[in-house]
Design a protein that fits this description.
The two termini are about 20 Å apart. About 60% of the residues lie in helices and about 10% in strands. With about 100 residues, it is mainly alpha-helical. The chain has a two-stranded antiparallel ribbon with strand order 1-2.
Length: about 100
């Protein structure tokens, strides 16, 4: 078990399941918003998608509780999203992913 605390929990098996189900653009979105909240239009411009296409990716990311969105503020990582990204980056550094 990696983390425990209700909705912010991220177990090893959940990390692996999420990691298998995310698409390349989902990772791009997570990386971009790790630096702070951004609008769908801004993200789309940076990764070559329309704002609407970015919002479609939000559905999957929100389903995993990795991001939250707020009108006028854009999207941001949740606590669980931060834990997911940290686990992902730690695994890449160690050559595990």
């Amino acid at each position: 078990m990696l983390f425990r605390s209700g909705k912010t929990e991220l177990t090893d098996s959940e990390f692996e399941r999420i990691n298998r189900e995310l698409k390349e653009k989902d990772y791009d979105i997570i990386n971009l918003i790790s630096g702070g909240p951004q609008s769908a239009a801004n993200i789309g411009e940076k990764i070559g998608l329309s704002g609407r296409a970015v919002q479609e990716h939000y559905v999957r990311l929100k389903g995993f509780d990795l991001i939250k969105t707020s009108q006028g503020k854009g999207s941001a990582l949740t606590i669980k999203g931060v834990k997911f990204l940290k686990t992902l980056l730690d695994g890449k550094e160690r050559g595990l992913i």
